[in-house]
């Protein structure tokens, strides 16, 4: 279930044109054979550098079947470490009160508190630059940028030939009004294809799509959307030109009105972009949650959604949270969902061998399962996209007819270790799930299974707190302004999810690193539940990590016998 993004296939053609395709193997280096091939390889790498690097080309140039069939076996070479780029979401877009006719009513009576947190474990020079603003350097391994006026671009230089390891997060806290909530997200690598699963454009909902181009060339962006009844015609909103170093906002209710459930696909040509949705919901005067919907995993037959933390709720509770699914292709799907929780594996009621119509966005209720932290595993016979939303109830305000609600979206992610920044001013809880691979490891189980294990290997109450089945281990490291401040070995029973309080890892933690032990029996999927306190109830958001397996570290280079780019 890891994301295969750590290597590229390159056909070095005669005379000069490169062709790039993705492969799914881990990066390894092999020596070129004859001197002539060495020249062709170096020429191909030079062309790659001149056209913007392996990362940029990989998102836009598909493989040519004819060229692949005729090509010689590929040689693998290291890709020189390049500067890394992350884009952090900008400040919340405030509602327009100019047409309300009531100057005494303020829809956002409390100013948002907005910060960008960045930390690194290895890097050269690191800069934080709001679009149109001045750069700020990363200080002593961690920096907090307060009150940014625009999305922030983080650029990190390699060090000693190794790519930088830097992560960041944006957080906006609004304690009252229409945008009440904690809206937080990890800073993301720009890409050519982005899938945003979440949001709504029904009455009293808002969904603003923000496109950010951190590059030096204009990006021609195509936007697609799906709703409960299928694909949505966006009219003129389907194409957006985003200038270099600029952003554009598409107000989706204006081009895709009355869509209770929403999925958005963003594809870019000419440059790579970052994209996110600002999702907000009202019920009359009662705020029902604001959060950022960020890009998740591309369509796949198996997806993992971490950080699904739910309270106890009835099956028919409309505020129980939901798992959102879409089959973006033309073929219907049969889908099954497993939830890996604190007591092991649990089936989501009604989500086994579920028939999904192609093109229709579906929500599956998370009601009827016990309170706790879960990792959702979605398995389908055709590619799907997925995300989850969860909610917390607060107290009613003076003008509210019902309790206030806070919501958080969790995106599907790749598995494996990586980095994640802890938003400044929040309290964090890590959720770490061990997703079974179906492969039997060579090592003995770390704990003896109970003689009569119950469903999901629920621990025997007489056996204490020791795991009752095989476990995998993850190393969690905490970082602050002065470097590493704590480390903990976390054992996760296979098929379950555990929680780790960030406060238990050290004081003033600004970043987390998770290192996995490559156990063949399970893969680690993790996220951060960030919370902030408000007078009328808790505010929350879920942040996903920058996973190491998504980084490009090497290229596969081979000859091709035809001209042009496939």
Q: Mean pLDDT, nearest integer?
A: 82
Q: How is the biggest beta sheet arranged? A: 9 strands, antiparallel
Which bin fits the share of residues in helices?
under 10%
Which structural class do you get from the secondary structure elements?
mainly beta
Beta-strand content: over 45%
Ends: how far apart?
Answer: 28 Å
Count of helical regions: 4
> How many individual β-strands?
38
- In the predicted model, the low-confidence regions spanning at least 5 consecutive residues are 1-71, 442-465, 561-566
**Dominant shape:** globular
Gyration radius, to the nearest Å?
A: 24 Å
Please, could you describe this protein's structure?
The protein is mostly beta strands. Among the domains are: 7-82 and 552-560, no CATH class; 433-532, no CATH class. It has four helices and 38 strands. Strands 12, 13, 14, 15, 16, 17, 18, 19 and 20 form a nine-stranded antiparallel sheet that branches. The model is unreliable at 1-71, 442-465 and 561-566 (pLDDT under 50).
Keywords:
38 strands, mainly beta, disordered C terminus, nine-stranded antiparallel sheet, 566 residues, eight-stranded antiparallel sheet
